[in-house]
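Page 37, continued from 36.
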């Protein structure tokens, strides 16, 4: 089976459930977006929510996808940067327990964390303190770390570190790997449009985007956006929420339906979809089955709080994944 390497911001997710969106307005956070905050702002948020019993989980977009792949049985690795503090140790132990081969560099700032505000309708808004995660440098990663893998999955939030992304792409291509990129967030795309428009046609093989991200990148609605993105890469995936998703590969469009579920929290849905799709690609499955695996993981994740498959759901997920693969 093919091996997938994830590279991204190593963050600990703090899951903050809200009764309404008042707190977002107080903090000046655009609903549904990802906003980078500094250490002082991170401390302010911490003091505002410290009375709550806030669950935590190792996260970051690429780490979520790699966790999902590991749960399905794909061999995976991860590269990130943390501090040797409580959150950093938590992050490292969580990856090890999942069977992920992690290469974690040590930074000077505290381990990054993502304050995930969950609205009553399950929409999520991120206020992210990158901390040590943003200290990862291009000259730290090496060809030896990439060599055992077949696909590298890069999270779009890394786009602010252009040198690191460019180095990761060079190492991947030198090792004959496919390069997968998740566009992450519409505001990330808008702020880095020129850079994305330069690297995607030249270097990216797999692009994951939701409809807002796809529109930010192309200026088009989902189906037209899919066509434009597919003209620039081998595999284009545009997710359209409750309407499912579209995949275009080899000039063929595949429509993927969602699985029926009750959405509690959309955190990590796109990351989970990417995990399912890449697992299918590892198995050389047709696009329909790759997409169905993505829909299965995304639907499972949104039925719970947080960005991961719960241990009590894993047996059912594996059974349903097996049915998709074998039917």
């Amino acid at each position: 089976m093919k091996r997938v390497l994830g590279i991204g911001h190593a963050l600990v997710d703090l899951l903050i459930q809200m009764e309404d969106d008042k707190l977002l307005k107080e903090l000046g956070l655009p609903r549904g977006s990802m906003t980078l905050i500094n250490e002082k702002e991170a401390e302010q948020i911490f003091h505002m929510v410290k009375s709550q019993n806030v669950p935590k989980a190792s996260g970051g977009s690429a780490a979520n996808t790699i966790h999902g792949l590991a749960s399905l049985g794909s061999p995976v690795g991860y590269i990130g940067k943390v501090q040797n503090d409580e959150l950093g140790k938590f992050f490292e132990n969580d990856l090890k327990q999942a069977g992920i081969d992690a290469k974690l560099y040590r930074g000077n700032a505290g381990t990054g964390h993502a304050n995930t505000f969950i609205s009553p309708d399950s929409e999520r808004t991120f206020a992210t303190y990158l901390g040590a995660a943003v200290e990862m440098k291009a000259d730290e990663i090496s060809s030896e770390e990439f060599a055992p893998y077949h696909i590298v999955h890069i999270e779009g939030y890394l786009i602010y570190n252009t040198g690191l992304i460019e180095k990761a792409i060079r190492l991947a291509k030198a090792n004959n790997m496919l390069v997968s990129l998740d566009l992450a967030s519409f505001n990330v795309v808008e702020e880095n449009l020129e850079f994305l428009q330069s690297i995607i046609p030249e270097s990216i093989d797999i692009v994951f985007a939701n409809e807002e991200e796809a529109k930010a990148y192309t200026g088009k609605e989902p189906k037209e956006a899919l066509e434009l993105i597919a003209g620039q890469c081998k595999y284009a995936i545009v997710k359209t929420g409750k309407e499912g998703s579209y995949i275009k590969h080899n000039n063929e469009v595949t429509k993927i339906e969602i699985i029926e579920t009750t959405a509690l929290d959309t955190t990590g849905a796109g990351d989970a979809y990417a995990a399912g799709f890449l697992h299918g690609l590892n198995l050389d499955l047709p696009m329909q089955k790759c997409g169905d695996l993505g829909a299965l993981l995304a639907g499972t994740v949104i039925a719970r709080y947080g960005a991961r498959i719960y241990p009590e759901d894993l047996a059912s997920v594996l059974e349903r994944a097996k049915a998709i693969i074998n039917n």
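Residues 287-302 form the longest helix (16 residues). Flag for discussion at group meeting. The chain has one domain: 4-9+60-111+133-326.
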